[in-house]
Amino acid sequence: MSKISVSNLTFCYEGGFENIFEQVSFYIDTDWKLGFIGRNGKGKTTFLNLLLGKYEYSGSIQSSAAFDYFPYQIGKERLAACMSDFLYELAPDCEEWRVIMEMEKMKMDAELLYRPFGTLSHGERTRVMLAILFSRENYFLLIDEPTNHLDQASREIVKEYLSRKKGFLLVSHDRDLLDACVDHILVLNRVSIEVQKGNFSSWWENKERKDAFQMAENEKHRKEIGKLKKAAGRARDWADYNESTKIGYDPIREHDRGNGTRPYIGAKTKKMQSRVRQIEERIGREIEEKEGLLQDIETPADLKVMPAKHHKDILVRAEKYNLGYGDRYLLRDFDFTLQQGERVLLRGANGCGKSSLIRAILRANGPAGTAERAEDIAEVTGEPRRPETDVMAAAEELPGTAALRESGVLRTASGLRISYIDQDTSFLRGSLSGYCEKEELDESLFKAVLRQLDLERTRLDGLMEEFSEGQKKKVLIAASLLRQAHLYIWDEPLNYIDVFSRIQIEDLLLRYQPTMLFVEHDVRFQEKIATRVVEFR
After folding, report:
1. What are the angstrom distances between the C-alpha of 473 and each of 51, 89, 453?
2. DSSP alpha helices (H): ranges in 483-520?
């Protein structure tokens, strides 16, 4: 057991507008199961890189521990090689038998070590890399968002595995994972950093209490400042009035006043002015105590979405629908309806056909989801049909896959407008202004929504390829919210999105209740948002 001590840490990227960290001090223990949370772009991954010694900084980070980082960076040139072939390049001091033991704890066959890495699913790659990570001894492990893109079953395995481990720092926005796996929380607040014992839920409960107390204190100080300002104003008026009566007086109205009263009036005025100064000093102290009370309070803006009302109740229907690639079918005799007002969750293992069904619905609805198609319904019967009415006008050859095969019936309502969020963010390049022009979005409104999602103002004029993954996701979410649609289709929208924004988006969807079809593995989000679940097996 040893400590990692951070003292007066200050860091800014070269060419950056402001410091990521400024005079930050805290300590953590290498024996802890530490959860690490904060807003997107606040510096979580940056801090991990500082621990790894990748950047220069001012201040000090002192530790006798060695660090290892997940995920390992594995280039495309290694996709055809087996993990066992380059295992010792990733972790020179690990032993293969230890890796196999850790794999068994995650219900994995050792045979995966000897398969080409490129043939492993995302979940298998994640678990193999975690097995390598934990097979090493005397390391403090830095684990950066291990459950992104994992299906529910894989998440449960990783959650159970990490809950039995210790000596790691886990960056994650998955509230369920944090509650199960950590015993301390490191939080990047808006202007401060805090370390607290407990899991996410205990920290969140404490934060709500602290925020409520600070808001009450702020309101008390605000009222006191108001009272003091009024008192100071009255005292100042009295002092000014008394001062004006020192010279000259009305002998008829003030017949009892003599020339000797002038020093008395001067002394009284001086006393009143002294009282004014005392009140102003109290106001200064109240303002000083008030400052800083609300600096770390999260006050997310109320987002808006304007779902359109469609003239039909059923927006999507599938009857005896089959979908596959080559000889492999993902869906067989699939029956499904999506009614207006529903928020339907598609749930199942990776590769079971959730995203493929979403893409089929988008194809069925046409390029823009307008009523320009020749027919009200789109059908797939296995026979060639006219392009404007067929879900798939011709066999579609996808890179690296067999030809797409569909049969049965897939229907979308005429004139259906869909707002879609894709899993992929790699296409986001260039400026936000260029993106708005391409997507025909109102730039000022778009940037206003991004600010409401807590994207830093300095980022609004930057290039999207320089954004973090969470910030890129916010670009897609903001664009989707600005498109008035009958149906919102979101495919894993919360990957990399911070906890605070997740709660903000949940509140939005519950308030406006748009019709939705979505894929999302965040258990808390599923429980709050879905009105119905469609299981893929």
Report:
1. 26, 33, 11
2. 499-512
Amino acid letter, residue 318: A
Confidence of residue 301 (pLDDT cuts 50, 70, 90): confident
| Residue the block writes with tokens 């960056």 | 171
Contact 215, 223 (CB under 8 A): no
Kindly report the average pLDDT of the chain as a whole number: 83
Cite the DSSP H helix spans in 422-498.
Answer: 432-439, 443-452, 469-482
Higher pLDDT, 265 or 305: 305
Per-residue pLDDT for 171 more than 80? yes
Q: Is the peptide bond prior to 71 cis by the omega test (within 30 degrees of 0)?
A: yes
Provide the pLDDT for residue 243. 64
**356 class by beta-carbon count within 10 Å (0-12 exposed, 13-18 middle, 19+ buried):** middle
Q: What is the DSSP pairing of strand 314-325 with strand 404-412?
A: antiparallel
Report yes or no: 18 and 456 within 8 Å, Cβ to Cβ.
Answer: no
CA distances for 60 relative to 33, 56, 187, angstroms = 23, 10, 19
Q: Which amino acid is at 56?
A: E
Q: Please tell me the predicted confidence (pLDDT) of residue 302.
A: 78
